[in-house]
Amino acid sequence: MKSFFGIFSQHPSSVGESWGEHATTAWSFSWRLQLAAIAALIHAVLPFMFTKTASKIVAGLHDRMVVHRSKSDSVDVHAGQQ
User: Fold this and answer.
1) Taking Cα atoms as reference points, which of 26, 52, 21, 24 lies closest to residue 39?
2) Distance from CA of residue 53 to its chain's centroid?
3) pLDDT at 77 over 50
4) Which residues contact 71 (CB under 8 A, 6 or more apart)?
5) Where along the chain do its domains lie?
6) What is the pLDDT of residues 48-61, one digit of tens each?
7) Model-level pTM?
8) CA-CA distance, 73 to 54, in Å (whole number)?
């Protein structure tokens, strides 16, 4: 069985971050995804608004998370996903 600390540190350390760094990054992704969702919802009702906003946010997050991972380029970003 993993130690209590190990549960909180295993994934962040696998991507080259401390728990705090990982929490900050995840928090910023969360807010941007929420903005993308709101833009997409408004776009669904008013298709002339926010025509590229959600896709630009998602593309930027993908670029930041996968394409330009600075801390650990050799990490398999899909490892551990279910």
Assistant:
1) 52
2) 17
3) no
4) 15, 16, 17
5) 31-67
6) 999 999 999 999 99
7) 0.70
8) 26
